[in-house]
Amino acid sequence: MAALGLQLQQRFPVLTGFSYSCLSSATIHARAVRSVSSLSSKLKKWNNCSRLPRRLVVGLGASFWTQFMNVAGNSKSFMASARLKSSVEQALQNVEWPEQFPFKEEDFQRFDESPDSLFYEAPRFVTHIDDAAIAALTKYYSEVFPPSNTPGVSILDMCSSWVSHFPKGYKQERIVGMGMNEEELKRNPVLTDYVVQDLNSNPKLPFEDNSFDVITNVVSVDYLTKPLDVFQEMHRVLKPGGLAIMSFSNRCFWTKAISIWTSTGDTDHALIVGSYFHYAGGFEPPQTVHLSPNPGHSDPMYIVYSRKLSTA
After folding, report:
1. In order of start, what are the domains of the chain with their CATH numbers?
2. Is residue 190 pLDDT above 80, yes or no?
3. Dist. CA 112–CA 119, nearest whole Å
4. Sheet strand arrangement including 154-160
5. Strand-pair category, 174-179 with 193-196
6. In 48-123, which residue ranges form alpha helices assigned H by DSSP?
7. In sequence order, what are the residues at sequence separation of 6 or more whose Cβ sits closer than 8 angstroms to the Cβ of residue 220?
8. Nearest to residue 191, comparing CAs of 209, 208, 216, 210?
9. What is the pTM for the complete model shown?
């Protein structure tokens, strides 16, 4: 289990606006040791029965899962049902989801539980992914968005800021930004309107049913502490057939990201976001796109997307 402890420390995502030097090595080690201790006790319990606890498997990460399955044989679990492979793009293929949402309340806790309104009080006029990843995301948007100036099209950019990474010159009659800092939202040139709202305090979206053709969320899905509530609201405000695009990288404000995210890797993240779509209900099976422009040399970029069922 010592090797697993090292792996957990290595799997922390790259931090945006945060340095590991801000945390003592003892603090990081203690968090890893607590995870290892918990896993160890669950492993001992599993050794005495025939079924691997589902909660144990979720969040272990692809590399440990591969090693574990060599021992576990044909045991069924959430991750086993997904037939997890190394590629993020294959993570949501042929998933057999459990009947119940497999995550617990503790999975959505953060290292910093202070009010998000305080954390985002000061504007940050910076980008949280590098230029290559931004260009890849913008290109993807250009391929899947409705054409610019399409009559009747409305777009919602959730967790928005001073930039949305939409194609240059892209316009629609209605593009609403929802974020935490008004000064940032005011600076966003693509928005026609904006709403300041903390989705972790109030996940209810202030829009009518069937309002939007597209919903985007750029590198912020990892901060949602009530994701099912938010995704159910996304379903409500999307038009039938509407598209929801969740993009993520390995960069984040680590202290504000949920614990299940900071303790897992990119392939697991695709499964986590995919599970939000699935358990919210009313969406097509979610799919993943790997957009990383230069793996190993620039920030990775991944998409998990789905459409609201036309009959929903």
Report:
1. 2-85 (no CATH), 116-307 (3.40.50.150)
2. yes
3. 9
4. 193-196, 174-179, 154-160, 212-218, 238-248, 302-307, 287-290
5. parallel
6. 54-57, 62-72, 78-81, 116-119
7. 158, 159
8. 216
9. 0.74
